[in-house]
Amino acid sequence: MGKRSKSHQSKSPESTPESSSHISVGAPKATPALDMSLIFLAGIGILLTTYLTYVAWFEAHPAFCSEGSGCDSVQASRWATFLGMPMAFWGLLTYVMLAWLIWRAKRKPASWTMVLFVAVSGFAISAYLTVVSVVEIEATCPYCLASFGIITTLMILTLVRQPLNWSTSLKEALVIAVILIGGLHLHYSGVFDAAAGPEDPQLQALAIHLADKGVKFYGAYWCPRCQEQKAMFEASAERLPYVECSSGGRKSALTKACAEEQVKSYPTWIIGERRLTGLQTPRSLAAATSFGWKD
Asked: What is the CATH number of the domain that holds 168?
């Protein structure tokens, strides 16, 4: 009876280390303080990008950034928007997703892999935009740099947290980040959308010329022809002297400026005493305003 008990006791210690070792392999470190730090940083990122999104939507100047400052130049650049939305809005979505994934990972450790994917992707995009602001725009925005610092810290702390299979996950996250940056660069190079690319010098000069001549381009946001008209000026469309006539929708009353000019169709161009209706090519607008258009 004693021998059986002894034999039984001698086998238990051997099985315990194997079971413990098997469970701990690849498991993330349980660090509640670090997890709360990650959630706190994501929260700061949410507050920052919410403010920048508000500023972009309402066309206001960020606090402590005077008109014409480096921050103003960055916020007004073509890199400040993506798919018609402020880049800050996409940053806000990134921080919200990170906060949710980190909170979820407290109950489901496998979610740390997704946290790593989002953090690395967010870092890569923020790094790309920071390089663009320094090299292309030749200006920096303190708010953007602050966001870059937050996402960088989030990525580093996530790596310290060591998600499940973190080395493999990191390689996969880097591949995703490279693909995202490549697509973003092609977008801003005008490959997918000419309006997002660099300005054509002649179209830019013509748009500025039209504004300087006091020309007005009347249209409506829901008018397909108006959108075609703007598309003809590609990345210089924002420089056109555009006047919105129907801010309340198709059945809304004309805005005051359009009512005074008795605008009845879109688009309508008023050049001095002349009135041109319908789609106008850049060449025809150049001829009507004595701009030296070169083929």
From this structure: 1.20.1440.130
Of 246, 241, 287, give the one whose Cα is nearest residue 266.
246
Span 232-268, pLDDT tens digits: 998 888 899 999 998 777 778 899 999 999 999 999 9
Answer yes or no: do 87 and 214 share one domain.
no
Is the pTM here over 0.85, yes or no?
Answer: no
> Residue 231 belongs to what domain range?
201-288
What are phi and psi for residue 169, nearest 5 degrees?
-65, -35
pLDDT at residue number 5: 44
Calculate the alpha carbon distances from 283 to 60, 207, 265, 280 in Å.
35, 12, 21, 8
Confidence check: pLDDT of 22 > 50: no
Structure tokens given for 277: 């209706």
Alpha helices in the chain (DSSP H): 2-24, 32-57, 70-76, 87-105, 112-132, 142-161, 166-188, 201-212, 224-231, 256-260, 282-288
Angle at 66 between CA 61 and CA 68, to 5 degrees: 95
Identify which of 148, 197, 135 has the alpha carbon closest to the alpha carbon of residue 41: 148
Cβ–Cβ under 8 Å, residues 223 and 258: no
**149, 167, 193 — which closes off a domain?**
193
* Domains: count for the chain: 2
For residue range 149-191, what is the model confidence (pLDDT) as tens digits?
A: 999 999 999 988 876 677 788 889 999 999 999 999 998 888 8
**Residues 187 and 42 grouped into a single domain:** yes
Contact 288, 274 (CB under 8 A): yes
Residue 19, in any domain of the structure: no
